[in-house]
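Running co-folding for adenosine-5'-triphosphate.
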Amino acid sequence: MKTIGILTSGGDAPGMNAAIRSIVRTCIYNGIRVMGIRFGYDGLIHGNIYEMNVSSVADIIQRGGTILGTARSDEFMTDRGKQKAVGILEDFGIDGIIVLGGDGSFRGAEALAELGVNTMGIPCTIDNDMGYTDYTIGFFTAVETVSSAISKLRDTSSSHGRANIIEVMGRECGDIALYSGVSSGAESILVPEVPFRIEDVTNKIESGRKRGKLHHLIVLAEGVGRAHEMQGQIEKITGVETKVTVLGHVQRGGHPSSYDRLLGTEMGSKAVELLIQGKTSMALATRNNQIEIIPIKEAVSIKNTFNQSLYRIAQEVSI
Ligand code: ATP
């Protein structure tokens, strides 16, 4: 292993920079050349590649986003696109690549592995929707951002005696809603994994009112539906003024949490170490606080599981 390439792909996630820094520094420490591939698979097939050095990753461990840039590439999905990628890797003398991204990006890495490229995958997405690992890089930073926003909304909600619906990201996965809802003491947490009736929410608002509760915080995962539709239903049934906050892309940014920086640093270093040992086509995972590896092919086929036990606790403590 003489030259390793790094690319970040799909949605950006806080902590990607910590992983990039770790990969670059571990490579240089071990005498390996390291190449940054800009804008994901799109940059790869267009040869948007540069050599990185110790200073290329200075002052980035604390920054959100990705210094390499990220993109989604339809051209890479075609056979011609993938062949082009293999040719570019050969042209630049890259012997192995480390892909930082979500499910789709891992499928891309698996496709390259089938064409003979040495690959490693590091799970990065705020959604935490990759079933093979307990947590993905970026998830806890997003949870922190959402919890902090909910706490601010609680202040104003209580002052006016309002209900508040906070729509959060996660696509088909309810983890951001669940973990931020629990950590900010939300009254209702609505996720795609658990069916609910609007009466579950409105009855709770009404019983809360009866005992003098001034606020009612509803965290709605985007995979359930749109907050504005629910707002009208709640106001009609309860008569309680209900405000909507769609947090949107603010959830993607910000300084990565210490946990995401640690995970990025550990996984980045481990990915390089594995490539040096001649391992390939593997995905890194964190399971029970240990860094583990499993074949990428297997990683992308494992269905995501929902934390039912945390959801049950949320139900019990938000009565
Ligand atoms: P996030 O979960 O944050 O959205 P992701 O990695 O799942 O991240 P995708 O948009 O699904 O994001 O994938 C990123 C890129 O990976 C795609 O634009 C495409 O170039 C490549 N990719 C996705 N699926 C495949 C596939 N089946 N085969 C080859 N490449 C793929």
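Result summary
The longest strand covers residues 3-8.
The longest helix spans residues 139-160.
Job closed.
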